[in-house]
């Protein structure tokens, strides 16, 4: 039976939400199907199972993460250089460097084994708000990317699994690059399915503009008279818009559409 909002009488009381999401097995999808438009502060993970607070106890492998971020810098720079060349951006000055890779964030995603994977989602369909995302995934799998309609295969299945390959990184184009390239590079819609057999871990590095950067299609892209598809937006406003709503496919980018 479909859940109703009455099942979750108080959305801010963690024990009620835990009961609904985990013990009753509705999952986070159940919450959204019940009509909840924003998630309560504490949900899913019972307090005793949460990772320690970073501000008080430090990350379990902070040094390794920082070193990993440092090591990926070369590949990020190289990728952006190549991508920029195709847009006729041959010189990456300070302003462009900031808009392309002025801030970075690393996440540690942990997907616990799920007793009812069909009743929930791992991560809902979305595109990243980054310029690029450099994703390291373990051997479990579960990441899917959406193939654009014109590339659709005959069997109508346009979600393609991204199989884990030892020693490889997954590179996603994000919305910021879609905006700055005036749509020449398209951010990839993706999702992660829950897994009933094992835990899964992924480590994305989000390469972003600085929050105070104004992002818009690069003048070089519009030089031949091409019409701008996107207006100038303050990057922090763009990110705020993303986090204000539930994952909704590729709709975030409409925020910058002219
Ligand atoms: O876990 C993954 O493979 C992808 C996670 C993801 O899409 C994200 O963190 O934005
Ligand atoms: Fe993502």
Automatic annotation (TrEMBL):
GO terms, molecular function: L-ascorbic acid binding; metal ion binding; oxidoreductase activity
Pfam families in UniProt: 2OG-FeII_Oxy
Presence of the UniProt keyword Metal-binding in the record: yes
Keywords, sorted A to Z: Iron, Metal-binding, Oxidoreductase, Vitamin C
InterPro entries cross-referenced by the UniProt entry: IPNS-like_FE2OG_OXY, IPNS-like_sf, Oxoglu/Fe-dep_dioxygenase_dom, Plant_2OG-oxidoreductases
Residue ranges constituting the Fe2OG dioxygenase domain according to the UniProt record: 95-209
Recorded superkingdom: Eukaryota
Tagged with keyword Oxidoreductase: yes
SUPFAM superfamilies tied to this protein: Clavaminate synthase-like
Family: Belongs to the iron/ascorbate-dependent oxidoreductase family.
Protein name: Fe2OG dioxygenase domain-containing protein
Organism of provenance: Cannabis sativa (Hemp)
């Amino acid at each position: 039976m479909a859940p109703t909002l009455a099942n979750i009488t108080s959305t801010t009381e963690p024990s009620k939400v835990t009961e609904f999401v985990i013990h009753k097995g509705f999952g986070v999808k159940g919450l959204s199907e019940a009509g909840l438009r924003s998630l309560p502060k504490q949900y899913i993970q019972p307090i005793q199972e949460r990772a320690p607070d970073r501000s008080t106890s430090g990350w379990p492998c902070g040094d390794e993460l920082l070193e990993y971020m440092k090591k990926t810098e070369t590949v990020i720079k190289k990728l952006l250089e190549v991508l920029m060349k195709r847009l006729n951006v041959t010189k990456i000055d300070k302003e462009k460097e900031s808009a392309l890779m002025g801030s970075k964030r690393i996440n540690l995603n942990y997907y616990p084994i799920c007793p009812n994977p069909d009743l929930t989602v791992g991560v809902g369909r979305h595109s990243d708000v980054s310029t690029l995302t450099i994703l390291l995934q373990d051997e479990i799998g579960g990441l899917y990317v959406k193939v654009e309609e014109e590339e659709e295969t005959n069997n109508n299945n346009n979600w393609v699994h991204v199989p884990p390959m030892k020693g490889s990184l997954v590179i996603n184009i994000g919305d910021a690059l879609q905006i700055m390239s005036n749509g020449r590079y398209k951010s990839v819609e993706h999702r992660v399915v829950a897994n009933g057999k094992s835990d899964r871990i992924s480590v994305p590095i989000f390469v972003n503009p600085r929050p105070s950067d104004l992002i818009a299609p690069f003048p070089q892209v519009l030089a031949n008279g091409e019409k701008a598809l996107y207006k100038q937006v303050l990057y922090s406003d763009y990110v705020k818009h993303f986090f204000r709503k539930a994952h909704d496919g590729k709709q975030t980018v409409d925020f910058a559409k002219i």
